Amino acid sequence: MSPKSPKPADATNTAPTDPDLEAMLARALGQPGAEPTPADDAPVAEAEVVPPEAQHCGFIAIVGKPNVGKSTLMNALVGQKVSITSRKAQTTRHRITGMRTVNATQFVFVDTPGFQTRHGNALNKSLNKTVVGAVNDVDLIVFVVEAGHFNLADAKVLSLLPANVPAILVANKFDLVHRRGELAPWLRSMQERHAFAEYVPMSAKNPRDVSRFFGICEKYLPQQPWMFDAEALTDRSERFMAAEMVREKLFRLTGDELPYTSTVVIDKFEEDGNLKRVAATIVVERDGHKGMVIGDRGEKLKRIGTEARIELEKLWGCKVFLELWVKVRSGWADDEARVRSFGYE
């Protein structure tokens, strides 16, 4: 990641005053008489030709405990899948950068792994190092929690947030809250925990909420030239995305049976015109896990490959030939050298 951008003068991390807090809560909860924010109903306009002196750009870290919806939010903001999702905790293992350029502003979103409070192995130490590094190297932090909930895992992530970086509280899955008036006391309690600059109850699956979110983040990003092409969506390579898509299907199709320490390594990536040839190895820790992945007569492995191939063809707009193998590497998640060799920081 590039060095942290200089802060604009008005992007301090000062807590809202009580009147500001009440207005923010009313606006967030959609109460009668609440003034809408300027971006509430504005559609997301893609980038036009903007001179460098008029451009704004900055890094925004998306953080939170595992399985709170960070990757879903990231994909919605970018407008395309760049970070994999599944119900299994520890799905995101890398710092994924996704970009979206809207009008004169380039938003560089950084999806991070959920902070790990269990299993102190080499893999989890690597994931936690990624989270800590991200929150200290950005212009804005988006702290994602489930609306109306806060537990020890949330508190652990919150304790990592530096005081000198503005932070927005995203109360995700707001659409699942049935008695929304009860959310106001919860939001006030969250303000007591940290001086959040903004409160944003939303659903990452609601396009209107996502569109509004750009306007909320924009004012915290400094005036400086864009760091990426206006059409860029991620800085990750196609080789990396191939491994991630296979891992997503692996986790989704094996459920809780397969331990989270399984991973995917790309052995071959070749391009031939409109065809990409990919060979990948699924790495598991035990022989029994290998059987889970292969399935009866190889049906599970075949389905993993088929669904990953379809996803990659949709992502790249070309034909994909995908070949999968399964290998056992006992104890790899506890071996720092092996963890690094598999591409973890």
TrEMBL record:
Pfam families, A to Z: KH_2, MMR_HSR1
The ranges of region (G5) come to 202-204
Where do the record's region annotations for G4 lie? 172-175
> Where in the cell?
Cytoplasm; Cell membrane
Q: Where does GTP bind?
A: 64-71, 111-115, 172-175
Q: Where is this region: G2?
A: 90-94
Q: Cite the CDD domains for this sequence.
A: Era, KH-II_Era
Task: Give membrane topology per the record.
Answer: Peripheral membrane protein
Occurrences of domain KH type-2 (ranges): 246-330
Ranges for region G3: 111-114
Q: Where is this region: G1?
A: 64-71
Region (Disordered) location: 1-44
Q: Composition bias, kind Low complexity: at what positions?
A: 34-44
Key words of the record? Cell membrane, Cytoplasm, GTP-binding, Membrane, Nucleotide-binding, Ribosome biogenesis, RNA-binding, rRNA-binding
Where the record annotates domain Era-type G, the positions are 56-223
**Family assignment from sequence similarity:** Belongs to the TRAFAC class TrmE-Era-EngA-EngB-Septin-like GTPase superfamily. Era GTPase family.
Assembly? Monomer.
PANTHER family listed in its UniProt record = GTPASE ERA, GTPASE ERA, MITOCHONDRIAL
Its annotated function is as follows:
An essential GTPase that binds both GDP and GTP, with rapid nucleotide exchange. Plays a role in 16S rRNA processing and 30S ribosomal subunit biogenesis and possibly also in cell cycle regulation and energy metabolism.
Q: What is this protein called?
A: GTPase Era
Species? Hydrogenophaga atypica
